[in-house]
Amino acid sequence: MFSRYQLKRTKADIDELFVQRLRWITVFLFLAFLGLWLKLLFLQIIKGPYYRELARKRSLKVITLAAPRGNIYDRRGLLLAGNTPSFSLFVDPGTVKGPQGDKVLKRLAELLGEEFPGLKQRYLVLRRGSLGNPVLLKEDLDRDLVAKIAARRFFLPGVEIRVEPKRYYPLGEAGFHLLGYVSRINASELKRLASSGFEASDFLGRAGVEAQFEQYLRGKKGRRLVEVDARGRIRRVVAEEAPQIGKSLVLTVDSVFERKLYALLSGRSGAMVLLDPRDGRLLALVSAPGLNPARFLEGFSHEEWRKINRDVKHPLLNKALLPYHPGSTFKLVTALAALEKGVITPQKVIFCPGYYRLGRRLFRCWRPGGHGKVSLVEAIEVSCDTYFYQLGEAVGIDTLSQVARACGFGRPTGLGMPGEKAGLVPDRAWKLRVFKVPWQKGETLNVAIGQGALTVTPLQLAKFLAALVNGGHLFKPWYVQQILDAYGEVWREEGPVEEGKLPATAQTLRWLKKGLVAAVNGEHGTGRAARLKKITVGGKTGTAQVVGMKKRIKSEKLPYLKRDHAWFMAFAPAEKPEIVLVVFVEHGGHGGSAAAPLAGKFLRFYFEGQGSSS
C-alpha cells in the first residue's frame, strides 16, 4: 500500500511531465506554423508572379490546326492530288515527362501494341527535334484504336488525337514524277523554318508540282484555344480559328494520257513527254519506273530505301528532265544549221559507202553497206550517219553549237519543275575550259549525229520539235492553266509564253518536216513502227551509244547498263500538228524497234481510241 505522501508526489511528477510535454508541443506547433507561414510567404510574395504566369499558361493552351493542301486537278477537272481525313496521335512534351510521363507512355504502349522501351525511345528522339511543339507519335490510326484512346482520355494526360488531312494521289505511280510528293519536315528544316510558323508535324512538297507550287498549295493554319486542367487534359474549347485550305491548281495535263503513257513504259526505264505544239502546253509527262507517292507519307524501312537507291532503273529520278545523248534525233538541228548557213541545199546528193573518212580515221554509218546516194529528205528518212558527218564538218562546231542553243538546247526549258537539268552543248571554248585541250574535228562529227559530249533532255527535244512543226515558234512548256482560291474561284490564270523563234526560214522548216514524214511513212523509214492508217505521222528515231566500242555489237547482247538508249520523237497530224510526243527508253536498244512502237501505240490510242482534242 502506498502512503499518502507517495501518492501526492506521484501526482506532482505527472503534472510536471504534462506541462513539459505541452511546452514541447507548443514549440513544435509554433515552428510548424512558422515554416508554413514562411512557405506561403515564399510562394505568394516571392514566387507569386512566376506561379501566376505558370497557372495562366496551364489553364489556357493553344492547339494548332493543320491546313489542308490545295487540290490539283487535270484539264478535265479530274482529281490528281487531294486530301482524305486521317487520325494522328500527338503527345505534349510539357505534360508527358518524368515518372508520371512514363506511366502515360506505358498505357499508350499497351493500347498501340508496342513495347514500352521502344515507344519511349522513339518519343524521346522525336521530342528532341520538336522544339517544344507537340510530338507526332503515330499517324493514320484506325477508328477502333481512336475509340480506345478516347475512352481512356482521363488516364492519358498530354495525349491528343487530331484529325489531319492526308494527301491522296489517285494516279499512283503514273503521276509520281509529274506531281511529286509530300513528306514531314525534317529537323534541320524545322530549325530553319520554325520562325515562319512551321512545326515538326508539317508537310513540305518534295518534287514536281507539289514542290514547285508549295507556296500556293500550302494553306493557312488554324488555332484552337482550349482550357486544360492541372494534368493537361482538355476541359473545354474557349475559341477557335478554322484553318484555310491552300490554293488549288488546274493543270493542262490529261490524266488519261498520263496513265496510258506510263502503262506503255511498264517494265522499262525511260520517259515520255506529250506537248501541244500550238502553244507549248504540257499534256503528259511520265518517267518510269515510279513510286507510289503515298509511300512517302507512310515511310520506308531501311531495307526498302536501300533497295530503291540501288535500283539500276533509278525510280527516284525524273528522266524527262535529265540529260542524255540524243542520238540521231539531233540530226534535225545539224540539218537546220547546214541549210541556214548555205553549206548544203535540200537537193544536193551525198554518197554514203557506209563510212566517212576524216584524215586517217573512219567514221562509220550505222548501216555497214552504206545508203548509196541520198539527199536531205532521204538522209532523214534512213537516218544516214555519213550524210550528217559531212554536214557537221562543213558547218563547224561553233556554228552548230550556236544554232543548237538558239533551238533551246543547253538551258532549262522554262517549265520550272525542280530537278530540271540544262543539258550540254559543247564547243571549243567549253573543251578548253574544262579539259584544257583544243577541240578536234572528229568531235564535231560525233556531235553532228547526237553523240560525243552533247546531251539533251526529253523535254528539251519535245520543245524543239514543237517549234519545228508549228512554224518556228519556241514556246516555254507550261502546265498550270488556273490557280483557284479557297472558294474555287479563279485567282490567277496562266497562258502560253513565246520566248523566241527557231533560227530557220519557213522553207527550211518545210523541208525538215518533209524528211520527218518520210522517216515514218517512207519505204525505208526508220520510224515505220509509228505509222498510222488514217493519220499522217512525222517523226525521227534515235539510237544513242552509252559506251564507245571499236566493233559494233548488237545492243541486246550487251550488259544492261552498256546498252544503247532508244529515242523516238513524233508529231501528228502532219498537215496540222496538234500533238508532239517524245519517247525515251533508257538502255532500250534501237529507236526504231524499242521507242517507235511505243509511240505508235499511243498515237493509235489518241487518234483512233481516245479521239483527238481541240
From TrEMBL:
Family membership: Belongs to the class-D beta-lactamase family.
Chemical reaction(s) catalysed: a beta-lactam + H2O = a substituted beta-amino acid
Topology versus the membrane: Single-pass membrane protein
Protein species of origin: Thermodesulfatator atlanticus
Domain of life of the native organism: Bacteria
PANTHER family registered for this protein in UniProt: PEPTIDOGLYCAN D,D-TRANSPEPTIDASE (PTHR30627), PEPTIDOGLYCAN D,D-TRANSPEPTIDASE MRDA (PTHR30627:SF2)
The protein, known as: Beta-lactamase
E.C. numbers: 3.5.2.6
GO BP: any one term: regulation of cell shape
UniProt-listed InterPro entries: Beta-lactam/transpept, Beta-lactam/transpept-like, Beta-lactam_class-D_AS, PBP_dimer, PBP_dimer_sf, PCN-bd_Tpept, Penicillin-binding_protein_2
